[in-house]
Write a structure and sequence with these properties.
Length: 669
């Protein structure tokens, strides 16, 4: 039986096992773990009804991304939980533990600054980007590090917490400036720290107006008493407060801290947008773009759970969107660029509430019908719906989590979703633009070197270390884009020592002998890594041995090993290209890609030669047995640590096993 037939048989056997397990699924909430043929967990999901949700993967049609996931499933497990909240927490923990390939995985690629009052005997105020569960008080996030540092600078002037990381033996300048209580030499009661911490907490949570009034009163008193320097200090503090707390376009009528989420999906990708509202003002936004493979809203909720699982700096309220509907039919975002301005949000809460009342035949009725259809679908498939997911998240985090249906909060969520949609649209438009520019660059490069068309480019590079493990690699660019299915690797057979010219001759000969023999497409241009010598070697083989007349160019590198010059012709002559042109950038990409491919192949071969030299030198160990040993034990080190009995499952007798162990241990000693 050939390998393909055997694979089909194993696949059918696995699917039959899945069908039996599907019949035993319970009508309960829980998590499910999808596995591939190697038993590796490739996806973790949650459901309010396990039976319906897991069955939905193996019935009906799916989009391309979900179909890719389903095609790899060979088994599954499930864990029953007592509630949706338990399922949410369990799913989050399982994803963090197993890092499944098809799950949304939260990457901490960018963290924002927070202000932190440390949980110490003598607390400090500091700026940090790491939010830990250390019982400290966190405030933020801030738009940027400058804003956080300026706020800290202001608070340092106003509140005398210690500034030093390690307690000194004597008072410092901050004490003499009235900006430190000097706990290094004086006893400071806890009540003093509690009062300062409370005032900072009040200031950062919207109480700055009261503090500003108090500073104005003190400034007036200092001026009346002719303490002008003190009055100037207080005036500067008031100016700083006004600057830092300046009103922004996007505001709400209250001063609550909120995280507002929105998301959009297209072509198997999801964008999640977070708007950070602090003290009623929007201070920051963050976006994450990633591929998703399961149900859109379930994967979105999975992202939310991961986001808050290690972040104790919770807002007072979290606003979430419902499942994505076919609402694009009622009108989608047409703006290009950032939608974040949204002045209409400011001060329109009452108008928004009155405008949100549905009228006959209005878009609201369509929206409600779509919501109902979505909820029915979620119910049928056992997906945790928007309200259920929000309730579970609220129970877990202990803060209000709301899916607004109308009014100002609905507008805020809509704004986040609109920005997510624009970001996703920008991603695809940038890809299209890049492809268009690349195609134009390839066409222009063809004109520069005198070719009517330049659709297919084949590039070569050699790699060795002082002649050891010599290899070469070829990459193919079609219309300016890499075509990885066409890449080829070559082990050098006839060249001894580090001879780059003869290596180039061998590779060119082997490649284009095969092209002629198998009637493969010829390239419009051949690119070699090097100058006149490499170009001449390639042309010599092509024209004098194979009778092919394909243009050959060389890419010469500078002292920093960067692409410096293009050479072409026989004899080769340099071609002038602006260093900032798209054509030069295309050549750089080609040279970097073929070099990367050659180097990675050379490393593989060097690593294998180090392994094979140890095992192949042992009598009775051939290629097949060497592979069997490495597959069973995992490494030469583990083979060396094995006992004679460990070789029996491989049908290796005591005599040969002893020879293997003695040879490896002797080589080590």
């Amino acid at each position: 039986m050939d390998d393909f037939a055997k694979q089909l048989q194993e696949q059918e056997k696995a699917l039959e096992s899945i069908r039996h397990k599907l019949a035993l699924l319970p009508d309960l909430p829980g998590c499910y773990l999808m596995k591939n043929q190697d038993g590796t967990i490739i996806y973790v999901g949650k459901a309010k009804v396990l039976k319906n949700r897991v069955r939905s993967y193996f019935t009906g049609s799916h989009n391309g991304k979900t179909q890719m996931l389903v095609s790899e499933i060979r088994d599954f497990e499930y864990i029953v939980t007592g509630s949706n909240m338990e399922a949410l927490i369990l799913e989050c923990n399982l994803i963090k533990t197993h890092q499944p390939r098809f799950n949304v995985l939260l990457k901490d690629d960018k963290t924002y600054p927070y202000l932190k009052i440390t949980n110490e005997e003598h607390p400090r105020l500091e700026v940090t980007r790491r939010v830990l569960k250390d019982k400290a008080k966190y405030f933020g996030p801030y738009p940027n590090a400058y804003a956080a540092q300026q706020t800290k600078k202001l608070l340092d002037r106003m509140y005398p917490l210690r500034k030093c990381g390690v307690m000194p033996k004597e008072v410092c300048l901050y004490y003499h400036m009235g900006q430190c209580l000097a706990p290094c030499v004086k006893e400071v009661p806890n009540s003093a720290y509690e009062q300062i911490t409370g005032e900072i907490n009040s200031f950062l949570n919207g109480g700055h107006e009261e503090i500003k009034k108090e500073l104005q009163r003190k400034m007036q008193e200092a001026a009346e008493d002719l303490y002008f320097e003190r009055a100037k200090e207080l005036r500067d503090q008031i100016i700083h407060i006004d600057t830092l707390m300046e009103k922004q376009k996007i505001t709400t009528t209250d001063t609550r801290d909120r995280d507002v989420f929105g998301y959009a999906v297209d072509k198997g990708w999801m964008c999640v947008q977070i708007l950070y509202m602090r003290q009623g003002k929007m201070v920051q936004r963050n976006k994450s773009v990633f591929p998703f493979y399961g149900d859109a809203h379930s994967d979105f909720m999975s992202f939310i759970a991961q986001y808050y699982s290690d972040n104790p700096a919770l807002p007072q309220e979290i606003l979430l969107p419902g499942p994505l509907l076919i609402e694009e039919a009622a009108g989608s975002v047409t703006a290009t660029g950032t939608v974040i301005e949204a002045e209409s949000v400011q001060g329109k809460e009452n108008a928004a509430d009155s405008a949100s009342q549905p009228t006959a035949g209005s878009a609201e009725e369509l929206q409600e019908a779509l919501v109902q259809a979505q909820e029915e679908k979620a119910e049928a498939e056992g997906i945790v719906d928007a309200a259920g997911g929000a309730a579970a998240l609220q129970e877990w985090l202990g803060v209000k989590v709301h899916v607004p249906q109308r009014g100002l909060k609905k507008q805020m969520v809509g704004m986040a979703s609109d920005n997510a949609r624009v970001s996703l649209d920008e991603k695809f438009r940038l890809i299209e633009r890049d492809e268009e520019r690349t195609s134009v660059a390839a066409a222009n490069l063809g004109e520069v070197i005198g070719l009517q068309s330049l659709n297919r480019i084949e590039a070569f590079d050699n790699s060795n270390i002082q002649g050891s493990n010599p290899v070469s690699a070829m990459v193919v660019f079609t219309n300016g884009k890499p075509d990885k299915k066409e890449y080829r690797k070559y082990k050098i057979r006839t060249v001894l020592g580090p001879d780059d010219y003869d290596t180039m001759r061998e590779v060119i000969r082997r490649r284009y002998e095969r092209v002629l023999k198998e009637n493969l497409p010829l390239p419009d241009l051949i690119v070699v890594d090097g100058g006149k010598g490499q170009i001449s070697a390639a042309i010599d083989v092509l024209e004098n041995e194979l009778g092919l007349f394909v243009p050959v160019c060389g890419l010469v590198k500078d002292a920093k090993h960067k692409t410096a010059q293009l050479m072409i012709g026989d004899p080769p002559e340099p071609v002038t290209l602006p260093r900032d042109s798209q054509e030069f950038y295309l050549l750089q990409r080609i040279q970097d890609e073929v070099h990367r491919f050659a180097i990675s192949f050379h490393r593989d071969q060097r690593g294998k030669s180090m392994v094979t030299s140890k095992l192949d030198s042992i009598p009775g160990i051939g290629e097949k047995r060497r592979k069997l040993l490495l597959k069973h034990f995992g490494s030469v080190k583990k083979i060396k640590e094995a006992s004679v009995e460990d070789f029996k499952p491989l049908s290796i007798g005591e005599k040969l096993a002893t020879q293997i162990l003695n040879a490896l241990r002797k080589e080590e000693s």
